[in-house]
Every structure is written in structure tokens, then in C-alpha cells.
Amino acid sequence: MKLSLGSLQFYWPRENVYEFYRQMAEQPLDLIYLGxxxxxxxxxxxxxxxxxxxxxxAATGKEVVLSSLVLIEAESELKTLRRLCDNGExxxxxxxxxxxxxxxxxxxxxxxxxxxxxxxxxxxxxxxxRGLQRWVMPVELSGKTLTDILSDAQQLGFGDxxxxxxxxxxxxxxxxxxxxxxxxxxxxxxxxxxFVCLDYPQGLPLASQEGQEVFTINGIQTLSGQVxxxxxxxxxxxxxxxxxVRLSPQGEAMAPIIQQFREQLDGTSRxxxxxxxxxxxxxxxxxxxxxNTHQP
Length: 296
What we know:
Number of strands: 11
Strand content: 15-25%
Radius of gyration: 18 Å
CATH topology: TIM Barrel
CATH superfamily: Aldolase class I
Structural class: alpha/beta
CATH class: Alpha Beta
Order of helices and strands: EHEHEHEHEHEHEHEEEHEH
Helix content: 25-40%
Distance between the termini: 23 Å
Number of domains: 1
Strand order of the largest sheet: 1-2-3-4-5-6-7-11
Shape: globular
Largest sheet: 8 strands, parallel, barrel
């Protein structure tokens, strides 16, 4: 089973981004997703620079995929999407149906990200006919639902023609909005946000009235308040037929986390655990997302 690093969800200074991926180039990752998928106002790296960084990482032997925006609202964002689709070198992760349409029209194979609502094998089959080669399961689905989808895909005769990827570590991307919640928290309008997301490199925690960190605000994106962790489910994923395990970038302890997943996949686990004790896995067990369901 392959190990992937999803696209960066947070807004970091330019040099921090380059330093992070210099480190990631040395990690035991099979795939790296690159690009801005959250907010088009985040321009520390331009589109061409993301592509050039992708080519550099691809030269190290890793598969690199360019991620598109989840929410497209302007012609300028469509222009960026066209540049991604026409890069001529790297595959693209479509994060909205406009990207799917654009890639299909060009006859290009593509990946669908977790924001694409694939809830059954018929939908998966329809997208496969348009060029889908790998899909990332929506984060709110359970392991049982995934088993059913993959079983149905086999019965429909295309199960072996696609790869399945599961978001397995990181804050869950839950929702997107046309409004910027981080700017609003600072009493700023979205169009004059002053790029305050740079002040929150791991997002802005949002607690309930009872003090529980339920969500993390990240610009127009809402993430889970806790880290989602499926390290203990890797063996069952192999049995299901999952091909790729996805980890989401974070600013601290990324290398040890990658190593821990790599060793677990290889059956050579020696690492001292670095995963937060309050990590959750509820969705995988058809439970509330913010709980940790212990299974025998």
C-alpha cells in the first residue's frame, strides 16, 4: 500500500513552504499532492511555482499530483484551473466538478479529492468512464461503506481499474464557504482580509460553549477540531483493497508521523508514538466524527 501526503491546507510563508517540501522529498512517501486547494487569495506561491516545485519533487522519484481549488467563484480561478490542467507533465486532483469537466474534455486521466461526493459505485463508475484513475473517499464515510462501494465496483467490472485512497491522518476537511471565517474573527471583510491566515499556521481553534474544541477555522474552510487518525486500521484497509493512505500536512512532527505510518505498513514499527492522544476515528466506525471508537 502506498503512502501519500495531501495538499497543504494551511497558509504558510513562502520560505516555510519550500523548506517543508525540501524535508518531504527525503521522507518515505510515494505520492505528494501540491497546490492551493482552499483559497485563491493565498498566493505565496504562484501557480507556475507550484508546477515547478512539483517537477522538482517528481525528479526525486515520487509521484506528484497538482490539487485544484475546492470552491471556484471567479474567472481568474478558472484561468488558474486551466493552467493546472494544461501543465503537460503532472496529473491533477480535481476537487470540484468543474475541474472534472475540464479534465474530461481534454481526455486527461485524473484523481478526485475528498470534496467530490462519491457515495456509491455507480457514481465512481460514471467518473471512471470520464478519466478517473484514483479517488479519495469522502472523509465522512465509514469503513463499512467503503467496503460496500469497492465490492459493488468489482461486481460492475471496473474495480481493478481504479485506485482507492483514504484520508488517514490530519484535521478533517469538513466544509467550505464563500465567506472567510478567519477574516471575520478579526473583524475584516473577506476582500480586505490582510492575509490573516498567515497568523494561524495550524488554523484557528473554535470551541463550544462547554470548552470543547469542535472545529478548526482555516479561512473559508472548516476543519475538525481534533486530528483524525486511522493508523490502527491499516491492516483492515489492506484487506479491503485500499491502495493509498493519505496523510495531511502539519507544521510539527510531520516526519515522525510519516515514519510511524511507513513502519506500520511495512510491519517494522519501532517508533515512539507521536500521534496526539485525543485523535479521533469516529467516522470510520459510523459514529460521531469527534469520538475515538476503540475496537478489539
